[in-house]
Amino acid sequence: MQLTRDSLSFQAFRMLGVLARLMGRRQAERTACLFGDFFYDVVKVRRGLVLGNLARTFPEKSPAEIGRIARSVYRNLAVSLFEALRLPLVRTREDAAALVDIDDTDAERFFRKTRGQNRGAVLVSAHYGNWELMAMTFGLLLTPITIVVKPQKNRLIDRQINSWRTMRGNRVVARSTALRDGLKLLGEGGVLALLGDQSDPNAGYFADFLGRKTSLFLGAAFFALKAGVPLFVTICRRNDTGRSIIEIREIDTSDLAFRKQDIRELALRYTKVLEDAILRYPEEWFWLHNRWKRSVPEGQG
Predict the structure, then answer these.
(1) Does the structure show a pLDDT above 90 at 184?
(2) Residue extents of the structural domains in the chain
(3) Quick check: 236 and 128 in contact, CB under 8 A?
(4) Confidence (pLDDT) at 241
(5) CB 75: neighbour CB atoms within 10 A?
(6) Angular region, 189: left φ>0, alpha ψ -120 to 50, beta rest
(7) What integer pLDDT is reported at residue 198 of this predicted model?
(8) CA-CA distance, 206 to 214, in Å (whole number)?
């Protein structure tokens, strides 16, 4: 029965992909917004969670303002889905450059700290904007990257998504083997990319995030300090023209060493950058995730 459900879901996913790729980019965006409104108004997928998270993060905003942000969250997620379904159409550097902008100064600084010093790097980002589009275009415009991925429950969809992620030179590594494979990659001068906005499943360290205590993800900090490579936060967001902007910001590690307190300090630093981006453009973040589901253990406040 599970195989049948997974197969049906996969076929629906494939058909939606075909539809998205037959449309022009603007038409796909308009259609995606209709999908977003449908899931917000009719299906109401996790709408209570989204509205509650937004209200607690922005207590100064009225219910009407919170509602407008929430609707934009669903629309942006739907647009990101349609853009991800259209990734096979991004074949060249020119195709990537038609979709995203990367500041020349950011790119030059990244190359100077990596290729210029024959070192790899850790990229940490968030479920913000279109992180799938960012990964592919970063690989085409700057340098191929290896992405730490969490397997999808539907293995058919999981294989399809990973085939798109790797079709233009990027690689993926499963979270289960990331420690070994990631350190090897960084030692060879590669670039390792992780999403660092979700809670740590091991729940080992708690700190403030958007005004509430929650478990922080330490993986990116561990890799950067263990391998002795620079760490960059990469953020992808849409501008008013519908294009995406990729921002690259290096996080200072010059005063840090590979030890527990410094790993935690580095995690606080990149989490703060992610937090600032979410506060500036809240509609870009994945508020449907129950980010604060892990409670602070007794004795840690």
Answers:
(1) yes
(2) 1-89, 92-282
(3) yes
(4) 83
(5) 20
(6) left
(7) 82
(8) 5
Q: What pLDDT sits at residue 296?
A: 65
Burial of 141 per CB tally in 10 Å (0-12, 13-18, 19+): middle
What is the pTM (predicted TM-score) of this model? 0.93
How far, in Å, CA of 32 to CA of 26, rounded? 10
Q: Roughly how many angstroms between the first and final C-alpha of the chain, as a whole number?
A: 45
Chain mean position to CA 254: 26
For tokens 């609707």, name the residue.
71
CA gap 242, 73 in Å, rounded: 15
d(C-alpha 83, C-alpha 98), whole Å: 13
Question: Residue holding tokens 């603007």?
Answer: 26
For 6, other C-beta atoms within 10 Å of its C-beta total 17
Question: Looking at the predicted structure, is the pLDDT value of residue 262 above 60?
Answer: yes
Amino acid present at 256: L
* Residue 301 confidence (pLDDT) above 80: no
Phi, psi of 176 (to 5 degrees): -65, -25
Residue 269 is encoded by which pair of tokens? 């630093």
pLDDT at 298 over 60: no
Residue 11 has pLDDT above 80, yes or no: yes
Whats the size of the chain, residue-wise? Answer: 301
Report d(CA 197, CA 195) in Å as an integer. 6
Tell me, what's the pLDDT at 120? 96
pLDDT, residue 266, reads: 97
Per the CB < 8 A criterion, the answer to whether 45 and 262 are in contact is: no
Burial class (CB in 10 A: 0-12, 13-18, 19+), 270: buried
- 206 forms beta bridges with 215
Percent share of the chain, pLDDT over 90: 86
DSSP per residue, 201-257: TT---EEEETTEEEEPP-HHHHHHHHHT--EEEEEEEE-TTS-EEEEEEEEP-TT--
In angstroms, the CA 123 to CA 193 distance is: 4
